[in-house]
Amino acid sequence: MSNAKLWCLTLIPSEIISLILTVLLALYFTSFILYIVRLLKGPTLPDRVLALDSLGYDLATFMLVLSIYLNSPMMAVCALSLALWIYAVDIYIAKYLEAKEMGG
Amino acid sequence: MIDVTLISTGLTLIAIGVFCDFVAAIGLIRLPNFFTRLHAATVGAIGGAVVPMLGVTLLALGYEPLGGTRFILAGIAFTTSILTMILSQAGSHAIARATYRAKAAPLQPIVYDALGEEKGDANE
Fold first, then answer.
1. B3 near A CB under 8 A
2. Which of A55, A74, A83, B83 is the most exposed place for a label (fewest CB within 10 A)?
């Protein structure tokens, strides 16, 4: 029993988790660059809003993973408000496209 | 044993999220139309954001060196994943409906337009 517990403790040390998280964060970054390409060259306004939408939700996820990586819960609170802000942008742009005005 | 299960499940879910992110980004670059890019963006919102947030929840619950802050992290990650699961669908539907009604994006690579038939645009 104690041998199995020792094996479990040595199976995933903290350095390996940090290494895996570093690789995953780098892959997230390359995906962000592809989103930013569509955000900059999107032919119409809804394309840009769609790219901003995906970029914002993935940025919230990036912040959550980064807060585990850096061990600080401050960034996670920012992720929660960022997800709500992206929804507000969607609704504002939809209202602008349908009614041609930004008022509430 | 439960820690190893939580950590490996969390890392696997984050890796699935990275894969879905790549698929969504390549789809946003390559697909020809706004209404087809909407499909790729929804893959990016659910597969690329909700699934890795659940993975962050499990990873934070099982990762011992974080100390007491891991419960705060797990709670915030779970709340954000549930909110994203609801709000991304609502936002995508609002954008698609407004774009179709205002004719702000071209419909051009199209197979069948059922909404146009209902409104009577076909006999224009």
1. yes
2. A74
